[in-house]
Amino acid sequence: MVNVLEVTGLTTQFSKESSKVTVVDQLDLYLKKGESLGIVGESGCGKSVTSLSIMRLLDHNGTLTGSIRLNGKDVLALSENEMRDIRGKEMAMIFQEPMTSLNPVLTIGRQISEVLEEHEGKSKAECKERVIELLNQVGISRPKEIYREYPHRLSGGMRQRVMIAMAIACNPDLLVADEPTTALDVTIQAQILDLIKKIRTDFGMSLIMITHDLGVVAEVCDRVMVMYAGQVIESADVRTLLRSPKHPYTVGLIQSSPHKSKGQHRLHSISGSVPTPEDMPSGCRFAPRCDKVMPVCLERNPALQQVDQESACRCWLYEEYKESSVVII
Question: pTM of this prediction?
Answer without folding.
Answer: 0.91
